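Quick illustration, no need to memorize.
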Amino acid sequence: MLTVEHVTKKYGRTLANDDVSFAVEDGSIAVLLGPNGAGKSTIIKCITGLLRFDGKIEINSQPNKSLEAKRALGYIPEMPATYDLLTVAEHLEFVRRAYRCEDDGRAEELLRRFELWDKKDKLGKELSKGMQQKLSIACALVHRPTVVIFDEPMVGLDPHAIKELKEMFRELRDGGACVLISTHMLDSVEDYWDEANIMVSGKIAATKRNTPEDGDSRTLEQLFFDVTEGGEHA
């Protein structure tokens, strides 16, 4: 489970996140939506421990910067960060050993699913951006995390990789993981989300649950544009 409570982040005088609170339950997919500059990537970086912040963030009931939380976390950043002089296979081996995981075949499974198995001996610097993104996803999932954070994960992916990634979202949820996807591409998440939080100007402006009990008959797209363009807060 992921819990974010009253998180505020400033860059100098700029308020990037303003008292942000939300939670993602185990076995669910939450999406974090908003226009560019809404503060989505900042809260993601706070969750993953890359930024200092005021407030409280817990991963599986542990402080987000604790070793226990980091072991449970998988993070796919918006911009893939690969090592120039490691091969594709060596990237996954490096991550697996860092987490002290047994070689259970997960690395090969991921590389095959994302059509990287035949590229396993290529260096990171030889990969296209799309291949780097697929490698970044594989590296984040090889240790079987229970809390997985995706920041704009579809950018640069080919149709096959997008199909596999969407299927993987569902598999993670069905396996009991909690998944948070930050994006501004509504059509990339429309068919599998459980809860959506819409950010505007550093705040959670609206929350919608994908259940009949939600009480809001608007589609996610309608709510998004009502909130981001109509100034409505719900």
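The chain has a mean pLDDT of 92.
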